[in-house]
Amino acid sequence: MIITAGAIEGITATLLTILERDDEVLIPSPTYVSYSEAIKVAGGIPISVPLDEEKSWSINTNYFKEKITPRTKAIFFCNPNNPTSTIYSKQEVQELEELAKEFNLFIITDEVYKDFIYEDIEYYSPAQNPEIKDRVVRIFSFSKAFAMTGWRIGFVHSSKENIAEIIKVHDAIVTCAPVVSQYAAIAAFELAEEEVLRFKREFIKRRDLILRRLDKLSNYFSYKRPNSAYFVFPKILKECSSRDIALDLLYKAKVATVSGIAFGPTGENHIRISFGVTEEKINEAFDRIEQYFKEQQ
Questions:
Q1: Of 158, 190, 222, which closes a domain?
Q2: pTM metric for this prediction
Q3: CB 227 within 8 A of CB 121
């Protein structure tokens, strides 16, 4: 394990370690916006693989296999997914493990939202499989579970051999994670377990509120119920540019969302809405969104 200056530094150091120029990395679409840029920084080429929205944004392994070429070096995904909040099943992940074994690929998993699973759903990591664990690099952050975004502290978990290589890049780009943040992370591990549970209970309440408010806008949005993280990714029923809708909501309604296209081509016609704010702010935001759509009629 290596302590990093946030999850994104761990991701970038990992990619700089394992990729050669023009190596390809398969990433689901939609997925977190920074993955593509981190792959490009490392000299690689991000290859988007569509998720199946009709099956709650699930993985179709055949789509991944179709995208594999001699240049493919890794499969990289976030579980639970950002922005869809999908929790990939054990079977889905194990099918990706089989591809990794067949084609000699790394699996990089960003597991920063695994503490926020709201239903009785099994969480499975490829690191649990001893046959594949030497090919697996797991990314973690204190920003989500412990609300420590500004502290820039996370860690990478992998085999000793992989960590020995990643630490060379880590040392070259940041030297070390901030020491004060490391002590804060230790305190979080030792003292804040109850706080994580409190956050989880609060997010469930906020999620349910957002879904009730979205139900009132069923002429404009449909959605898949999120069972993890703190996002909902509704589909805009009218064919339009998600970027235009997000900008309209920002400038006309003063509500910040993220356009679905930012998360990959399959994200078009969606927006991401966060419930990482208070219920009061959620209600105010939806009051403004409702008013915005009334004015568009």
A1: 190
A2: 0.94
A3: yes
